[in-house]
Each structure stands twice: as structure tokens, then as C-alpha cells.
């Protein structure tokens, strides 16, 4: 499929649904009756979702635990079969073209390693190179490229089990790129990493997106991943897409809300009932944070009301950060 | 198919290298298993020497039985230990990474793991094979028959291992259940064939084909029976065909889980 075709999508998902069935005990029946006849329960993990990604896009696919993120990623990669709906990845259907698709995509699951633990990292590169049918010279060339790109030379000859978590995650991403995939799907790639390792990994992902045009779809609970890596964010909750927008617009979702921090002269003791448009976010003796809905009450009026009620030494007014925005979206989704 | 085989051979080589990196446990596992098996066979041979022939089976037959079973078991689980680990892969969710591979799923899983102690079984099996040839003073045709039968017994061994491993996809607690199934299949294969008569022999030949991997090959060699050779061949290929179909069907039941895992072993 030509990349210059305007209608060409790297990933296209329409009306995708995944249901799981499992047995549940009937509490009214005795254990031996439950043993021979169990009831079936069905849960809908992903409910009729549709979205698409352009080639070269960097998209965050986020949601609270159990929202359906990983289930969706697993259906996109062919790990799980959808209950209904269609998936098209680079013109391929993951349920029918699993092997062909594997040559086109790279995957990183932050909680799972695909490296050979006892052997030097080079062996893992070689292993995956052979798996993707690369010739010896292609493997050598690609190892050199990736070693430079990911700065792996200091530990490329070390057994994988001796690597730090940050080094291992860099290696995981590098290995997943050995076959030059057009799309990389990352499930929690920065989980457990320190802030330096996180930044390094994010910079590398931006680099491969810029230099090799790799489309990136990632799930993460880390707002830093979303802010610094992804130009677009899709939010899923209870199996349904509740937001699909540019990441910079996501921060503006609650732009009508202002946060007001009050620091007491001594200590706050009595907390007054707030007028319409104001609500407490934090209510402690040392700090009060109030969320003001400026559609209902102006910032000026909000501050006046608060200063009338409280003896404050310091006051701070600010827009909400992205993490709070996302938290509010999740909470509203529930 | 060439690429699949090339990759399978490469994966087996890498698995052995990966296991051999931990030199101490690698060697202990291999030689520990050889010693364990030798002790087991001494018990049987001593027993038969004491009571004479048991159900038509001599001490030499017991050694032959051990040869067929141990070679098949040793070959399958040294090179293709991944089959035995399917329940573990399913339980942990690490089965995912095999589905993401561009290779034949069964070959990829089978060659994902290596078991050093099964090399011990293989070595033990080969020693028993040589001893058996000497004890029965095998002629050329018997030797040829033994070679064919050892291949067939290994295919049957592989087929049943695939079926048992693939049954994991249907259970919530696959590790415990498949261990039971493996025991059900392998334990009877180590008893002398004289113990299996009438309905019992029918069950352990056609329903749980434990006798196909040891007892029937020994009886075929001992009696130079082409009928039994044909029976072993038919059963080995039929079970292998069933195993491939069953695996393809079962893998569609896979529901990935989210436990944290590390490494490919």
C-alpha cells in the first residue's frame, strides 16, 4: 500500500469489541453443586471502539486500570481475537495475517522481557534478526545502527540479566526495531524506570519517529510519556473511547477551571461551605486547594470569598496540570 | 518451510548456549538425570533377575523399553521443552510474545526452551539402546527396525506432548491439570508390556497411547513383527496429525493474562 495515498492509514479500527466469558460461583448453591454446574458471566472489555492512526503519528492510548487499553493493543497485534469489528494494520488483518503483520510491527511490553537472559545483549539482537529472516550482514549492520542510536555500546556484551532496568528497557526497544518495523506498539514502556531513564527512552522514541518515520502507539500511566512523546491522545474508559484529541487540547479540557491554593498564617481549622462554582480539592490545616469554575464564578470573586473566610499568608492561582486533567476525565468517565 | 527449520535449529542452538551459561546447573542436571535413570533401571533389572521372566518380559526387554521411552522423551524435551511449558506461558501471559513472532507458532513455542536434564535422559536412552542391541544380539534387520521405531516413538511422544500442552488453553489452572495428563501418559509407558492385557492394552494403545512409545516398539523388535511396526507407524502419524489440528484449534482459546515475566526460559 503506497504511503503517499491520502486515505492510507497505519492503523484503522472500526467497531471493535472484545468480550470475555468466565465461570462464577452461585452463592446460593453448595460448593459441590457449583463444582458440577457453574454459571457463565460475560464482561465487555472493549466496546465498539473506532479510531485510526496516520503513518508517522505518535499517539497515546490511555485509560485507568481495566479500561481496555492492553486488550485493544493485544487485538491490534493479533494476540487476542476480537469478538466483533474490524482491524486493519498497514493493509493487514491481525487475525488472518499474523505472520505477515509481525514483520511490519514492533512491540514492547514494559512488564515482559523478550531478551535472552543469560546471554550477551548482542545474542538477543542476533536471535531476533534471524527470526525476522535478516542476513548475517544485515543483522551486523542493524546492530551497529541501533547500538549507536540507543547508545548501547557500554553494555552490549553484558548478559541481559546483569543490566539495570533502564538499560534493559532501552535494549527491549532497540531489539524490537531490529527488523525496521513501520509501527511500534508500546505497553507501559517506562514502567519502573527512574526519571533519567524515562527521559532517555522518550528521546529515543522521538528520534526513531523523526528519523525512521515509525508510527508510535503507546499506553502509559505516566503523564510525562504522553506530554513529551505524543501529539495525540485517545482516552478509553470502561471499554469505550471517551476522548480523542490533540494532546495540547487535552490540557485545555478543563481550562474553565482554576486552582487556588491558600496557605494559612497559622493553621486552618474550620472549613466553610463554599458557594456555587467553588469546590474543595484539598482541605488540610496547612493547605486548602479550591477548584473554581469560572463559568459560574470569576477568579476575582473566588479569591474575595476565600479571603473573607480564611486568614491566608499566601495565595496561588494556576491552571490545572495534565495529570489532574486526565484524572478528572477518568473520574467523570466512572 | 526452510526458513522455519533454519530458525528452529538456530533457536535450539541459542537455548543450549543460554542454558550452558549457567555451567554448574547445566552439568548437574544432565549427569544427575543419567544417574537417576540408571538407578531406576537397576531396580527393574534386579527385580526381573530375581523373579525370572515377568509377563513374557525379560531384563533385556526392560532395557529396550527404557531406550525407546528415554530417547523419545529426551529428544522432545531437550530440544522442544517449550511444549511442556505451554501451561506456564499461558498462566503468566508470556505466550503473547510467541504470537508476535513471524514464525510458525508451534515451532516457535516448542523451540523457546531447553531442558538440560532431558539431555541426561537422551544420553541414558542411547546407552540403553546400545546395551539392548548387544543383549538381544540384534541382526541387521532388527537394528534397522529399531532405528525406524525410535523415530516413530519420538513422533508419538511429541504428538501426545503437544496435545497435553495444548489442553492448557481450556483450563483455568493449566499447570496442575497438564502435569496430571503428562503423568497419566508417561507413567504407564515405563511399565513392562506384560502388565497390559485385554481391555487395558486396548485403552493404553488407542486411547492413551502410552504403549506406542515403548512397549509396542520392543515387542515389534523382539518378534520381528512388521504388523506391530505398522501399528506404531499408523498410531504415531495419526496422533501427530490430531496434535497439529488440536493445537490450531486450542490456541484460539487463548486469553492473555497480565503477570509480570522475565526472560524466555
Task: Provide a descriptive summary of the structure in words.
By secondary structure, chain A is an alpha/beta fold. Chain A has 2 domains: 46-250, Rossmann fold, CATH 3.40.50.300; 257-333, 2-Layer Sandwich (Alpha-Beta Plaits). In chain A, 33% of the residues lie in helices and 29% in strands. Chain A has 11 helices and 13 strands. Chain A has helices at residues 31-36, 69-76, 98-104, 121-131, 136-150, 165-176, 195-212, 223-229, 247-250, 299-309, 322-333; strands at 11-24, 39-53, 58-62, 84-89, 105-109, 183-187, 215-219, 232-237, 240-246, 257-264, 278-283, 288-293, 312-319. In chain A, the strands form 3 sheets. In chain A, strands 5-6-7-3-8-9 form a 6-stranded mixed β-sheet, sandwiched between helices. Chain A has a 4-stranded antiparallel β-sheet with strand order 11-12-10-13, covered by helices on one side. In chain A, strands 2-1-4 form a 3-stranded antiparallel β-sheet. The radius of gyration of chain A is 25 Å and the shape is globular. Chain A starts with 10 loop residues before the first strand and ends with a helix. With 265 residues, chain B is mainly α. Chain B has one domain. In chain B, helix 2 (23-51) packs antiparallel against helix 3 and helix 8 packs antiparallel against helix 11. Chain B is globular. The two termini of chain B are 25 Å apart. The chains are: A alpha/beta (334), B mainly alpha (265).
Return the CATH topology of the largest domain in chain A.
Rossmann fold
| Helix-strand string of chain A | EHEEHEHEHHHEHEHEEHEEEHEH
Q: Over the alpha carbons, how many angstroms does the gyration radius of chain B reach?
A: 19 Å
Q: What is the CATH homology-level superfamily of the largest domain in chain A?
A: P-loop containing nucleotide triphosphate hydrolases
Q: Rounded to an integer, what's the Rg of chain A over CA atoms?
A: 25 Å
Q: DSSP helix count of chain B?
A: 12
CATH class assignment of the largest domain in chain A:
Alpha Beta
| Computed structural class of chain A | alpha/beta
- Helix content bin of chain A: 25-40%
Low-confidence spans of chain A: pLDDT under 50, at least 5 residues? none
Q: Tell how many strands the DSSP assignment of chain B holds.
A: 0
Whole-number total of structural domains of chain B: 1
Shape of chain A: globular
End-to-end C-alpha gap of chain B:
25 Å
Q: What is the subunit organization of this protein?
A: heterodimer
Helix content percent band of chain B = over 70%
Spatial strand sequence of the major β-sheet of chain A: 5-6-7-3-8-9
The ordered H/E elements of chain B are HHHHHHHHHHHH
